[in-house]
Inverse folding.
């Protein structure tokens, strides 16, 4: 089952999934300049014990992290030298690693040797680049499948049920709506070329490209909820001051804002949304996933709140050529391994060499919010 498989190879092995929790014990939003206190936990699925520790991120350290992430964002947009990117990446990776992977956590992971790691992060710090933990030293995101969970006060919505699904995986690929990103058009063409048998299932790709990729046409296609995966390759923007205004752009001008996602007229959301657009995984800091007024902290937050089980996007500006290569690696891996977490790992590893060559940040900027270990219990249910 493509949305339930687990283990290192996706064949027959029961996963050892470790969850690292980073949660704020205080219910209220943090005040400006206030140190952030966290409870750090490590739990292996099925184990009776959860290891607990405490961590504090000072206001100065938080500012340094945010400044470092902003510097990397400027690097990703400005094409500076790889050596400059490496220096900042190593510094930010070390800071993230010290908070998330302190000595006790790293020792626990070494002892447990998990097949996948989940980062359960508090919604108020979803904006930090957690995938950089240990970057250029011990790169967690390149060792094992790594995904995020979000501790939020948003009530979970009903999910798609893999039990009773047919053996057709239906994918909607939206490419280059504005007509000025040829690599994005090639990106969806490469996805469409994967159509056909994939193990026990069949991949069926519907392409919405160029001038045909209007918001109205998109709404019409997703209305009946038949798509398991939705892929978007085009322009995106993130609004730091008003994250709910962050959007992806369609051919006819109307954008899909984060705050519009809740009104998409699908009868059920897809399993996975891959938003292959610039800054599509960024979130506002010190914010709820969705505020009491209904405003989202970004596109990732909006799709998760809408019931999507897995969301992929970029924390930085995505070069259209490297984004196309990452998408190709992801979907090729997904078809071969039938496991989302393993496919994300392959995509990150495939992009790693470009970091050394030209400072491309796709390997560390690719963010996956969802189950990187595979829902083994769902697999058992579908096998009965």
């Amino acid at each position: 089952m493509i949305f339930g498989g687990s283990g290192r190879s996706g064949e027959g092995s029961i996963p050892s999934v470790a969850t690292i929790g980073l949660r704020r014990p205080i219910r209220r939003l943090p005040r400006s300049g206030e140190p952030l206190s966290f409870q750090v936990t490590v739990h292996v699925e099925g184990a009776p014990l959860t290891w607990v520790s405490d961590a504090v991120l000072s206001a100065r350290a938080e500012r340094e992290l945010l400044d470092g992430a902003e510097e990397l964002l400027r690097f990703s947009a400005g094409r500076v030298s790889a050596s400059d990117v490496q220096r900042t990446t190593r510094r930010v990776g070390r800071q993230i690693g010290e908070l998330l992977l302190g000595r006790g956590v790293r020792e626990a992971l070494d002892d447990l040797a998990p097949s996948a790691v989940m980062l359960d992060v508090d919604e108020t710090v979803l904006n930090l680049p957690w995938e950089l933990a240990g970057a250029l030293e011990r790169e967690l995101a390149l060792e094992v499948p790594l995904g995020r969970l979000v501790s939020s006060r948003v009530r979970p919505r009903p999910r798609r049920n893999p039990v009773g699904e047919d053996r057709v995986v239906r994918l909607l690929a939206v490419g280059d709506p504005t007509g000025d990103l040829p690599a994005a058009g090639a990106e969806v063409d490469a996805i469409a070329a994967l159509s056909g048998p994939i193990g026990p299932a069949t991949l069926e790709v519907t392409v919405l490209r160029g001038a045909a990729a209007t918001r109205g046409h998109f709404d019409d296609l997703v209305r009946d909820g038949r798509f398991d995966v939705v892929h978007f390759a085009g322009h995106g923007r993130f609004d730091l001051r008003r994250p709910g205004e962050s959007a992806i752009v369609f051919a006819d001008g109307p954008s899909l804002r984060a705050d519009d996602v809740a009104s998409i007229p699908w009868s059920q959301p897809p399993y996975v949304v891959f938003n292959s657009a610039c800054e599509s995984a960024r979130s506002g800091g010190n914010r709820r996933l969705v505020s009491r007024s209904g405003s989202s902290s970004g596109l990732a937050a909006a799709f998760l709140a809408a019931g999507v089980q897995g969301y992929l996007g970029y924390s930085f500006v995505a070069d259209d050529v490297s984004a196309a290569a990452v998408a190709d690696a992801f979907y090729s891996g997904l078809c071969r391994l039938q496991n989302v977490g393993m496919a994300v790992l392959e995509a990150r590893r495939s992009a790693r060499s470009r970091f050394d060559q030209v400072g491309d940040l796709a390997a560390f900027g690719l963010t996956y919010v969802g189950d990187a270990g595979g829902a083994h219990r769902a697999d058992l249910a579908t096998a009965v």
Notes: The first helix runs from residue 59 to 78. The mean pLDDT is 86. The two ends are 12 Å apart (CA to CA).
